[in-house]
Amino acid sequence: MLLALVAILGVGVAAGGWWWEQRAPVAVAAQTSPQLDVRQASYVTLDKIVVMLKTDQSLRTANTYMSLDLVLRTDKLHEKAAKAELPMLKGVAVRTLSQVAMEQAKAMSIDEWTELLTADLVAAYASHPDLRPFDKVMVSRLIIE
After folding, report:
1. Per-residue model confidence as pLDDT tens digits over 86-136
2. Is pLDDT at 15 greater than 60 in this prediction?
């Protein structure tokens, strides 16, 4: 009985090790960028992203809005795919930006906005990083009123 239990435990450990080895390449692939030819760079714009920033209700101030334009770097081969993905990418950007408080938004630099949006836009392709049609996100316009 004890020998059977040890054998079952050994098979379980071996199966777990095999599963972990099969899973490891997926984790590495999720962190890599798509294979885009930067020598044939093309830029796709994601214009007119407008969100209302979160404010403290006790201040009773007027609503504060933010308008943002993004530029996605792609290549000629992936340009059509990037344009087809713009509605989904805009939804991700709006979801990200609508969580930012007014005070935090006014204190952030362009680089911080770029990092925040890049992280969420890349995360949208985490399960299929090879399908991501861009390799760089840039903020081209930012207005907070």
Report:
1. 999 999 999 999 999 988 999 999 999 999 999 999 999 999 888 899 999
2. no
Instruction: List the 136-144 sheet strands across, edge first.
Output: 41-52, 65-75, 136-144
Alpha-carbon distance of 46 to 68, in angstroms, equals 9
Q: Is 128 helix (H, G, I), strand (E, B) or coil?
A: coil
What's the alpha-carbon Rg for the chain, to the nearest Å? 22
C-alpha span between 142 and 145 (Å, rounded):
10
- Chain-centroid distance of CA 131 in Å reads 13
* Contact yes or no for 107/59 (Cβ under 8 A): no
Altogether, the residues listed in the chain come to a count of 145
- Phi, psi for residue 60 in degrees, rounded to 5: 50, 45
The residue behind tokens 């952030």 is 108
What does pTM read for this prediction?
0.71
